[in-house]
Write a structure and sequence with these properties.
This protein is mostly beta strands and 154 residues long. 8% of the residues lie in helices and 36% in strands. The N and C termini lie far apart (41 Å).
């Protein structure tokens, strides 16, 4: 991100950089053994702010359904928010409807299940991260959760 900082970005009050797309795993939230911590995904959300302060970060579906809201205390310059790709249980019903919207009756419906660590995680798809500063300025950037490639045997 430092290499990407140019006069155009520095002139803005807020800017969100591109994020690396994680690959969805049904193993998110599970422990490999009784002594391990749960396997949690991590998405680093890099963003630039011209002035320090508090920000609100909202994770939404591509259609605008709010899945999670986070607060961050930001410094002037580059900031990185660590997001575990989980969403609020209050959004579960609407999120499940979103995932199955447009599926034919014969198609298998997507069911979102609670992980072992009691969290619900985003499925593969397109999402938006919206950052709003304390003075009400907003910007958004799309990110993806990629589907795991199916292995083929030759």
């Amino acid at each position: 991100e430092i290499q990407q900082l140019n006069d155009s970005i520095l002139a803005k009050n807020i800017f969100v950089f591109d994020m690396a797309a994680p690959v969805y795993s049904e193993g998110w939230g599970k422990k490999q053994s009784a002594w391990d911590e749960p396997n949690e995904p991590l998405l680093a959300i890099p963003y630039y702010l011209k002035s320090k302060g508090n920000s609100t970060i909202r994770i939404k579906t591509k259609t605008g359904l709010l899945l999670k809201e986070l607060k961050d205390t930001c410094e002037t310059g580059l900031n990185y928010l660590k997001y575990d790709l989980s969403f609020n249980t209050s959004a579960l019903s609407n999120y499940t409807k979103f995932l199955n919207d447009g599926k034919k009756e014969a198609e298998k419906q997507i069911e979102v299940k609670e992980a072992e660590n009691k969290k619900y995680y985003l499925r593969e798809g397109e999402y938006s991260v919206e950052i709003e500063t304390a003075n009400g300025e907003k910007t958004a950037k799309m990110f993806s959760v990629k589907a795991r490639k199916k292995e083929t045997r030759e």
